[in-house]
Amino acid sequence: MKLRYSSASPYVRKVIVLAIETGLDGRIERVPTDVRDPSTDLPGDNPLGKVPTLITDGGEALYDSPVICEFLDTLHDGLKVFPPPGGARWTALRRQALADGVLDAGIARRLEALRPEKERSASWSAKQATVVNRGLDALEDEAVGLDGPLTIGHIAVGCALGWLQFRFPDDHWRDGRPALAGWYEVFSGRRSMRETEPTNPS
Ligand SMILES: N[C@@H](CCC(=O)N[C@@H](CS)C(=O)NCC(=O)O)C(=O)O
Questions:
Q1: Which of 35, 46, 50 gets mutated to test ligand 1 (max ligand atoms within 8 A of its CB)?
Q2: Fewer Cβ within 10 Å of end Cβ, the chain: N or C?
Q3: Cis amide bond preceding 52, omega within 30
Q4: Ligand 1 atom showing the smallest separation from residue 14 Cα
Q5: Ligand 1 centre distance from Cα of residue 53 (Å)
Q6: Can you tell me which atom of ligand 1 is nearest the CA of 68?
Q7: Is residue 96 predicted with pLDDT exceeding 90?
Q8: How many angstroms is it from 107 CA to the middle of ligand 1?
Q9: Residue 201 — pLDDT band, cuts 50, 70, 90?
Q10: How many C-beta atoms surround the C-beta of residue 90 within 10 A?
């Protein structure tokens, strides 16, 4: 399998963390992909032009990160990070949606800040910041419940928090969220998280 990736993408990080946790990492060749390069051939694999995109051994291109993660989870015999149908599954999927939604808003805010100053919208940026903060507050409220077996929800939350720390260090997401900060302190010590710290693409 081939994974088209960027070293800064939190969605890519979800896939690689899952692959490390489930012992699949050695089966995935990582293909660096610059999504901002106008000449990239990425749209040939993914018309949305986004990473992560996984090319399976059968040659099928899969996206986006929730789909890739669920596919990879079918390829190993260990503890599944997508629980079987039932309450635990919906909680895990909802947490993934919440964490991915925090990222979507955070990335929208970052892209807005990268536009030429006269094209930026302060109200749009403020709206995205509100979404991020509401999402983080919701995660703080349920942080105690994050103890328990590893699921895709945990992986997504960990990657979202790590990305916020990477891109918005001055926002101090931990402030006022002691339970979430405590959970992340432990979670970010996992080998899969330590080996996938975000970096700016070279
Ligand atoms: N919902 C997608 C989001 C993927 C995404 O937005 N990836 C970003 C990198 S962090 C990207 O490739 N952006 C390129 C673009 O939008 O042009 C997922 O979960 O995989």
A1: 50
A2: C
A3: yes
A4: 19
A5: 9
A6: 20
A7: yes
A8: 9
A9: confident
A10: 12
Q: Has residue 192 got a pLDDT over 90?
A: yes
The interaxial angle of helices 152-167 and 10-21, nearest 10 deg, is: 140
Please give the distance, rounded to the nearest whole angstrom, from the Cα atom of residue 51 to the centre of ligand 1.
5
